[in-house]
Structures are given as C-alpha cells and as structure tokens.
C-alpha cells in the first residue's frame, strides 16, 4: 500500500549514486526502492517493521533459484497429500477467515501456514510471498471468494458483501495456484539485495557512514493503517493487523510525528557518508479536526526534524501532484480520509 512509482527512486538512484554503492530505504514497503537499486547495479538495502513488507521486499531482492522453489512447492504438495491425519482443525479457525475459503482450500492454506518457515528460509519466504499474493482477489487465480479489492476490507463489510452477492466459496488448489503464480511473476535480479525486519529508528545492523544514498517514503501520520488494511494476509503470517499498527508508526498527532521522524532522521544521518543525499517523499495530509486545513508534512519534517539533526536542504522542496488514480489511498473516493493529491520530495544532504 502507498507504493511510490518506480520512476522516482530510479531517477534519484541514477542522479546520486554509482554502481556498486549502498542504497537504503528505511521504510521499504513492497520493496520499490530496493528492487530498483538492485536493477541499477547498486546494493539495495531495505528496512521495514511490517512482516508483510519484509517478505515482499525479500522475495524481490533475495530471490532463490526457480528450480528450488518448484521443488519445495512439490515437496509441500506431497506432504499434504500424504497427510491422512485430521491435523487441521477447521472448526477452530476464526469465522472471518472461514467465510473466505472452502474447507478444501482452507485445509491446504493452514498446512502451508504451519510449514512455511519464512523467517529462516529464503525459498519458504518466496513461496510465502506467492501465497500472500493469491490469498484474495477477483479471478480464479485467487484462493478466496471473489473479492474486488487488493487490500482487505473490514470483516463485517466482507460478510455483508458475501451475503448480498450470494457468493460461494470456491474449491481451489493452493499448490496448483502457487505454481501458476510462480510462472506469472518469476524474475531474478543479477545484483542481490538485503532486507531487515526492523524498526527504522534502530539500524544497529548498519555501520556509521556505510550508506551512499537513502530514498524513502515514511508513513504520513495515520493516513494508511498498514496492518488493519491487510488483516487477511497478516493472519497467514500469524499476526493480527491491529497489533501490527500498534507496533508501526500510526498516529494522527503531529507532536508524535515530530518525535518519530526526528529519531528516524538521526539514525539516517549516522549511517550516511558525508555529503551524501537522503531523499524523502512525503504527502500533504488534511487535518483530522480542522475542516479543510492541509499540513505540508515535508516542510514540517524539514523545519522541525531534519534541520535539528544536522542535515542541509540540497534543493528546494519539490511538489508532485498525483492526478491519476495510482495513489492507493485515493481508491476509497469520498471516504479516502486525510490523504491529498500532493506529495513532496525533500532532498537532504549530510
Ligand atoms: C509509505 S509506505 C512505503 C512504501 C514504499 N515506498 C513502496 O513503494 O512500497 C511506509 C512503510 O513504513 C512501514 N513502517 C511504518 N512504521 C515503521 C517503523 N517504525 N519502522 C519501519 N517501518 C515502518 C510500513 O510498514 C510501510 O510499509
């Protein structure tokens, strides 16, 4: 969610770094900067505290050999077929998940949920990314009842939608669909990257002055609830969407945002080489309670956080107006909340 277009990191990576250098994204999301860095021959390093973002980034930049993935899917399929014990207790699964999948499909998903060791193994992490991608959608390439949105609507909304449209849970074979998804999306990048499941304010795994360029898009106060809007995929990872939001930065308070971004920038400053650039893409947001008041968060971050940490402003803050529907936070139409059509690009220099 809230992905920025690849052309933005592509432009800044070419402008401010050389092949072989280290490019960091402290909020990697689905891995746009990290992938783009690897495609351009840089070492892409991603950080995200959300396990969903971690897996998506990892699958793009630490991609295993295709044959290893094929073999592992087949191994899991065989294990599941030979599993005669009534090992998965469907009755104990929450109704919110049971309403989405037939028993046949759900027993396979539960088996995979249990077997895939995505924290320890990169082949399993890749297969988990494939599975996350087919958890819900609107065609027969997906495991769920037909769901039109890429993000997860609230359980009650989905329940009413199912009743209103008389939807039946399809019997889909998860292993077959994993193979098909692999055929559709497998590509491998020559330069491998690295991703860490970690907080952007604490980058102990990176030394002082190790990074040549950083490009990122932090959360814009509380515009998107990365956990709650992905509760189905997070269930697969054994996580609760609302808990994830508590762990990520997710607050509407400007003073909390100031504290958070100051810590993020301090850590960014520590790991950047002298004279290197840090590019921040930050959208304007509407005030929660002051009618049409719009906050220029990029200006706020510059004045209240970056300057104090020691950064200089490399060029005037750029305005990027998003006129098409590519911004995920716009798809809610009238209920889109506090997102605006304006993003700003803040280029800082150490
Ligand atoms: C605006 S999105 C980044 C999107 C990314 N640029 C892309 O193209 O996909 C912000 C990301 O920040 C992550 N995040 C929120 N709080 C965090 C924290 N304290 N530490 C690390 N990541 C965090 C969220 O999980 C989310 O993936």
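^ structure tokens above, recovered residues below v
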């Amino acid at each position: 969610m809230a992905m920025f277009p690849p052309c933005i990191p592509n432009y800044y990576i070419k402008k401010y770094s050389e092949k072989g250098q280290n490019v960091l994204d402290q909020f990697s999301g689905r891995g746009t900067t990290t992938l783009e860095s690897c495609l351009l021959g840089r070492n892409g390093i991603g950080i995200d505290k959300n396990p969903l973002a971690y897996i998506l980034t990892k699958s793009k930049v630490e991609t295993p050999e295709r044959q290893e993935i094929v073999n592992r899917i087949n191994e899991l399929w065989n294990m599941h077929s030979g599993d005669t014990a009534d090992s998965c207790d469907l009755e104990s699964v929450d109704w919110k998940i049971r309403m989405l999948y037939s028993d046949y499909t759900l027993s396979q998903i539960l088996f995979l949920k249990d077997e895939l060791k995505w924290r320890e193994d990169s082949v399993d992490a890749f297969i988990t990314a494939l599975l996350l991608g087919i958890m819900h959608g609107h065609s027969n390439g997906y495991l769920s009842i037909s769901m039109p949105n890429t993000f997860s609507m609230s359980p009650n909304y989905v329940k009413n939608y199912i009743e209103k449209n008389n939807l039946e849970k399809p019997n889909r074979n998860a292993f077959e669909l994993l193979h098909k998804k692999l055929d559709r999306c497998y590509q491998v990048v020559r330069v491998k990257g690295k991703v860490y499941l970690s907080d952007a304010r604490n980058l102990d795994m990176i030394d002082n002055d190790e990074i040549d360029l950083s490009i990122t898009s932090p959360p814009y106060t509380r515009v998107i609830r990365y956990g709650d809007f992905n509760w189905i995929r997070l269930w697969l990872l054994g996580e609760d969407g609302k808990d994830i939001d508590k762990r990520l930065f997710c607050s509407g308070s400007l003073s909390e945002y100031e504290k958070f971004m100051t810590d993020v920038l301090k850590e960014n400053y520590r790991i950047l080489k002298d004279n290197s650039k840090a590019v921040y893409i930050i959208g304007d947001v509407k005030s929660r309670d002051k009618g049409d008041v719009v906050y220029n968060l990029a200006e706020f971050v510059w004045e209240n956080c970056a300057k104090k940490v020691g950064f200089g402003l490399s060029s005037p803050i750029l305005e990027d107006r998003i006129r098409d529907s590519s911004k995920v936070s716009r798809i809610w139409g009238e209920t889109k909340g506090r997102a605006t059509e304006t993003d700003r690009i803040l280029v800082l220099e150490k």
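DSSP finds 13 helices and nine strands in the chain.
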